Amino acid sequence: MTTPPSNSLGAYGFALEGLPDARELLVEAPPAWPTLTVVRASGGERPDVEQVTEDHARLWLASGASAELDRRVARAEVRVPDGTSDAALVHPYLAPVALIMARWLGREGMHGGAVVIDDGAWAVLGDKTAGKSTALAALELRGVPVVSDDVLVIDDGNVLAGPRSLDLREEAARRLGVGESMGRVGARERWRHRLGPVAPELPLRGWITLEWGEEIAVEPLAGAARLAALLPHRGVRLAPTLPHALLRLSQLPHLRLIRPRRFELLDEVTTRLLGALG
Question: In angstroms, how far is CA 212 from the centroid of its own chain?
Fold first, then answer.
């Protein structure tokens, strides 16, 4: 993979080429970030199977879209529905592409977001319906910068910034009073909340796993429970390229945030979490 020029913009640890209308969603790419060229193609028949080899990958994306990745030339051909904007291509369609390209570089990828606390990143993990984006938006409205919304790329202990947007569901956007309707993008309707600038790389300080429960509680995890809590959220369900790196990540502090599925408690939940992190 080639080294980008100094004025490049990107996300997920890559300087991105081929997405000129998404510049406002990207961060300044450090010189060490390799260039990834994204080529748009008209959506056609999605391949019958997904496949990942040492140099090529064939991926399923949301709503029948697909991607063909070539490691040797650092190129991703993304087949999306006609009319898909660069902003929509960057998020959400680019996330699975970034996970595979990151894996080829020996980086770890996770399904989750992250926020900035004391000049470091705390990752926020949870199942598909765990309310990750809503929790991230609530933290951002308290002045806590968001590093990434739904995919984390981690390189040598550093979180690499994602696109500068956070996509909410209709109820969360309405009740928080943020976000603009994008219509249906990918698998669902999205209300996009634009995020402020953030450093392209931040040291990972710890993990937060979201769960639903009867009462609000913030519980530290210890020992093997930390690794067990990470495994379900790995972005690529293949053997890690560097297993020892995943073990090191599991040694970081890990909090389990339990809360009722009641929107009116979101402010109290956010206060409790910030108190535990502080």
Answer: 21
Please check whether residue 9 is in contact with residue 93, taking contact to mean a CB–CB distance below 8 angstroms: no
Specify whether 250 is located in the same domain as 137.
Answer: yes
In-domain check, residue 261: yes
d(CA 80, CA 65): 5
- Kindly tell me if the per-residue pLDDT of 6 is higher than 60: no
* Structural tokens at position 136: 């991230």
263 and 145 belong to one structural domain: yes
Question: Which amino acid, 44?
Answer: G
Kindly provide the b/e burial profile for residues 210-233, where b requires at least 16 CB atoms within 10 angstroms of the residue's own CB. bbeeeebebeebeeeebeebbeeb
Number of domains observed in the structure of the chain? 2
Domain residues for the domain of 164 are 111-277
Q: Are residues 155 and 88 in the same domain?
A: no
**Beta carbons within 10 angstroms of residue 251's beta carbon:** 9
- Convert the pLDDT of each residue in 146-179 to its tens digit: 999 989 999 999 999 999 999 999 899 999 999 8
CA-based nearest residue to 123, from 257, 259, 9: 257
Q: Clarify whether residues 115 and 99 are in a common domain.
A: no
User: 20-60, pLDDT tens digit by residue?
Assistant: 999 999 999 999 999 999 999 876 678 889 999 999 999 99
Q: What is the mean pLDDT of the chain?
A: 92
* Distance, CA of 185 to CA of 191 (rounded, Å): 10
- Per the domain annotation, does 58 fall within a domain? yes
Taking the model in full, what pTM does it have?
0.92
Same domain, 115 and 45: no
